[in-house]
Design brief:
Radius of gyration: 29 Å
Structural class: mainly alpha
Largest sheet: none
Number of domains: 1
């Protein structure tokens, strides 16, 4: 979808703008709902993964302390055990996975925020359409002088040609 095009108002064809408005709100609303659900699912999955990560680290520590895992550490201090755990291949892979999951959450939240901003902009566009319609209906529609109007139309056409 083209955000800028979707929030533009063609003042010369308000009827068409009103017709498009409902479809745009529905489309962006559906997308927003889907992304909000995805954010929720990703956060739940991340929380579960963090709990699993804590369990994995605890399990490795228990195995080290009970002697089930042979380690080349002369003295088993807290710091030595933590260092060993943090350099464990399973732990480092899990940290990478958690980091990637967090990046995906952040990207999805950014996408959600953009969709929310667009959804809000469409509400504002509706208000503008209503006001323009009221003015036009009441005969108070402010029409620009011909030179300004022609310049504005040419600027719009030039933008679309870029």
């Amino acid at each position: 979808m083209d955000y800028m095009r979707d929030i533009e108002i063609n003042e010369l064809n308000l009827n068409q703008e009103f017709i498009k408005q409902a479809a745009l709100v529905l489309s962006y609303g559906e997308q927003l709902a889907e992304v909000e659900q995805k954010v929720s699912d990703l956060k739940d999955e991340y929380s579960y993964m963090k709990e699993c990560f804590i369990s994995i680290k605890a399990s490795i520590e228990i195995d080290i302390r009970s002697g089930k895992v042979p380690v080349n550490i002369p003295k088993l201090t807290e710091d030595a055990i933590k260092s060993y755990i943090n350099t464990n291949k399973i732990v480092t892979e899990y940290i990478k996975t958690l980091f990637e999951q967090k990046k995906e959450i952040n990207e999805t939240v950014k996408n959600r925020d953009c969709l929310q901003a667009m959804y809000d902009a469409l509400k504002h566009k509706k208000d503008c359409l209503l006001e323009l319609s009221r003015r036009q209906t009441a005969g108070f529609y402010a029409t620009p002088d011909e030179a300004q109007y022609n310049k504005r139309i040419l600027d719009k056409l030039n933008k679309r040609g870029d």
